[in-house]
Structure formats: structure tokens, C-alpha cells
Design a protein that fits this description.
11 strands, single chain, seven-stranded mixed β-sheet, mainly beta
């Protein structure tokens, strides 16, 4: 499955952004059967888990650093997963990647994800 992440940009601290992860192209397996995770990589740091959602959308999981501020959701009819980011902080500045996990469980482990989008950059100014 091919993924496209978009919606990043420059925002002031305290502001909001909504990222989208859209599945595109033909696939032998429906996007709705994959769990989707959002990961982020800040300048000079390793990529880290931010949030995930199971294939059905029934279960979500968040990193402690974003819990209560970020909300992940999905619209399987549109083959799209969203990450609503509120109360943004300068430390949220990173390139955000979405990825699809074939087990459908929404793991926090990066190597459980087989398909990755190209990333979208989020910059939060203080």
C-alpha cells in the first residue's frame, strides 16, 4: 500500500494542525485491514512513536508526550487516517511519518510497520 502524509506546516505554540495519511494506488489488501501509526523524527533525534490506531479504529494508543493533546482517527471509507494535534509545543517540531502495520494491532514498534509515507514537516514556533 502507498501512503501519502500531508498537512504539516508552521504554527505557533498553542496552535493546532491536522495531519492526514491517505492510502493511494491499487492494493491486494484493503487499507482498512491495516493498523496505522504516526511516528515523528525531530532534528538530530531518532524517529519515535507518536500514536496508532487499530484496523477498526476501536483502539488508539499514544506516546506519553502527546497523550491528551493529539487525537488519531480514521475514515476507512476515505482510506485516510488523521492526526489532530492541539496545544502544540516547540518540542513537537519534527517530520511526521505515517505507516501501515499488517497485523492490525497498532504496535509502537517501528519494524512492525511494512509501509511508510514520505513524511510531512511540522514546525512549532515559540
Amino acid at each position: 500500500v502507498q501512503l501519502q502524509a500531508f498537512g504539516g506546516g508552521l504554527v505557533q505554540a498553542g496552535g493546532s494542525l491536522r495531519l492526514s495519511c491517505a492510502a493511494c494506488g491499487a492494493s491486494g489488501r484493503p487499507f482498512s485491514s491495516y493498523a496505522v501509526g504516526w511516528f515523528r523524527q525531530a532534528p538530530g533525534k531518532e524517529r519515535e512513536f507518536a500514536a496508532s490506531i487499530t484496523w477498526s479504529g476501536a483502539t488508539t494508543n499514544y506516546a506519553r508526550s502527546v497523550n491528551g493533546r493529539f487525537t488519531i482517527s480514521r475514515d476507512n471509507a476515505k482510506n485516510t487516517v488523521y492526526l489532530q494535534m492541539n496545544s502544540l509545543k516547540p518540542e513537537d517540531t519534527a517530520v511526521y511519518f505515517c505507516a501501515a502495520e499488517p497485523y492490525g494491532l497498532g504496535s509502537e514498534t517501528q519494524n512492525h510497520y511494512d509501509y511508510w509515507g514520505q513524511g510531512t514537516e511540522v514546525t512549532v514556533s515559540s
